[in-house]
Amino acid sequence: MDEDMVGRTGRVTGTVGPGLVGEVIVRVRGGAEHFLAYPAPGEGRIETGTLVTVVEYLPPRTVYVMAAYDN
């Protein structure tokens, strides 16, 4: 599933940021699943509701994300 996760988009459901363990929801396997989320290197705080891209996946439920669009 590693290749399937990287590049997917999701939405932040719990603020992601340095020193924080956030949460995102990502559509996978025909549904939507929640993952623990950390900011990708160089990313700051990512607020709830922000669309993000998965840049790294650590099985079974952890992802590193970056904002999908610049604000």
Number of domains: 1
The percent of residues in helical segments reads: under 10%
Q: How can the largest sheet be summarized?
A: 5 strands, mixed, barrel
Give me the strand/helix succession. HEEEEE
Number of helices: 1
Uncertain segments are none
Shape: globular
Number of strands: 5
* CATH fold node name: OB fold (Dihydrolipoamide Acetyltransferase, E2P)
Computed structural class: mainly beta
Question: End-to-end span in angstroms?
Answer: 30 Å
The named CATH superfamily:
Nucleic acid-binding proteins
Percent in strands: over 45%
Radius of gyration: 11 Å
Strand order of the largest sheet: 1-2-3-5-4
| CATH domain class name | Mainly Beta
Q: Would you mind describing this structure in some detail?
A:
The protein starts with a helix and ends with a strand. Strands 1-2-3-5-4 form a five-stranded mixed β-barrel. 6% of the residues lie in helices and 51% in strands. The longest helix is centred in the first third of the chain and has 4 residues, at 2-5. It has a single domain, classed as OB fold (Dihydrolipoamide Acetyltransferase, E2P). It has 71 residues and is mainly beta.
Topology:
Layout: H1 2-5, E1 9-14, E2 22-28, E3 31-39, E4 51-58, E5 62-67
Parallel strand pairs: 3-5
Antiparallel strand pairs: 1-2, 1-4, 2-3, 4-5
Q: What's the short version?
A:
By secondary structure, the protein is mainly beta. It is built from 1 helix and 5 strands.
Keywords:
single chain, 71 residues, OB fold (Dihydrolipoamide Acetyltransferase, E2P), 1 helix, 5-stranded mixed barrel, mainly beta
